[in-house]
Write a structure and sequence with these properties.
The complex is a heterodimer of chains A (164) and B (124). By secondary structure, chain A is of the alpha+beta class. Chain A has 3 helices and 10 strands. In chain A, 28% of the residues lie in helices and 34% in strands. Helices cover 48% and strands 19% of the residues of chain B. Classes of the chains: A alpha+beta (164), B alpha/beta (124). At the A-B interface, helix 1 and helix 3 of A face helix 1 of B.
Chain lengths: 164, 124
């Protein structure tokens, strides 16, 4: 995958977390994802379409997600509440939208977010799109951005599905 | 002042409500998409709207275009993750008076609201 597809997401998560709730993010070494399981139990998911296609996932352990959502919303809430899912969805929406702005020369759209919560779930996307894991260390714990993107003209069909 | 917050995210509407209440605005109504907003405009009669772009049912840009067919003067501020210049231009052409890119600080949102109301001659 083109490295220029990845760096906007590194700066974007730092920008969103620091601007919205003053949480510093230390970016770890990105690596290629080798299995279909998501990194953690809470996934905020955005689909990308247009001149680029793919899926962006913000994957968080439940404890870290609850801490981050509390900072973001100013309220303690458990992972099984509707408001928790809404907050996680808004986070991945902002991260993806902010990163998308760096692809100025491409016409790219992002979907409304979906959120999946549960141990061992997987987010399946087209097998011909490599997925890069970006580890992000915060004081609330490690979260991972999973970026699977390619140019739409690069061949083959694309399908994305979510399984809990 | 009556302010309508149009965003499909309750979290974002709550953040905006918090900023607006700090600014002294308490007459607030919420809508979860453009169509919901159009349904509420008749009875609520907003004097300012904050509008998200990407929403289900009816997106913010369609809302702005529809709203401007009958109301040319009520200030509209787009609050969105859509940060590309082409999008900003598209929104301004459609009739928004100001533009805030998410993520934003409370101070930035406050500034844009005050600036917009001042430019549009609205009373706060």
């Amino acid at each position: 995958m083109d490295a220029s597809f990845i760096t906007p997401f590194m700066t974007s998560i730092q920008n969103v977390f620091s601007t919205m709730f003053q949480l510093p993010v230390e970016i770890g070494e990105p690596r290629i994802k080798t299995d279909s399981k998501t990194s953690h139990d809470v996934s905020g998911i955005i689909g990308v379409s247009g001149e680029m296609v793919g899926t962006i996932v913000l994957s968080m352990p439940i404890d870290a997600a609850e801490s981050i959502v509390a900072l973001f919303t100013g309220m303690e809430m458990l992972a099984d509440s509707d408001d928790f899912a809404d907050a996680v969805g808004e986070l991945i929406n902002m991260i993806s939208g902010n990163a998308k702005a760096e692809f100025q020369r491409k016409s790219v759209s992002i979907s409304c977010p979906s959120v999946v919560i549960g141990a061992g779930h997987r987010v399946a996307s087209s097998s011909n799109i490599p997925c890069v894991l970006i580890p992000c260390n915060t004081d609330c714990g490690e979260v991972v951005l999973e970026v699977a993107l390619r140019n739409a003209t690069e061949t083959a069909s694309t399908s994305t599905s979510t399984a809990a | 002042m009556r302010i309508l917050l149009i965003d499909d995210s309750k979290t974002m509407r709550n953040i905006q409500k918090s900023v607006l209440k700090q600014l002294g605005y308490n007459e607030l109504e919420e809508a979860c998409d453009g169509q919901d907003a159009l349904n509420k405009i008749g009875s609520f009669k907003p004097e300012l709207c904050l509008v998200d772009w990407n929403m289900p049912v009816m997106d913010g840009l369609t809302f702005v275009k529809t709203f401007r067919e009958t109301d040319k003067s009520t200030p509209l501020i787009m609050v969105t993750t859509e940060a590309e210049k082409s999008r900003v231009i598209e929104a301004i052409k459609a009739g928004v008076n100001n533009y805030v890119v998410k993520p934003f600080t409370p101070d930035l949102l406050s500034e844009r609201i005050t600036e917009t109301l001042s430019k549009c001659g609205a009373n706060s």
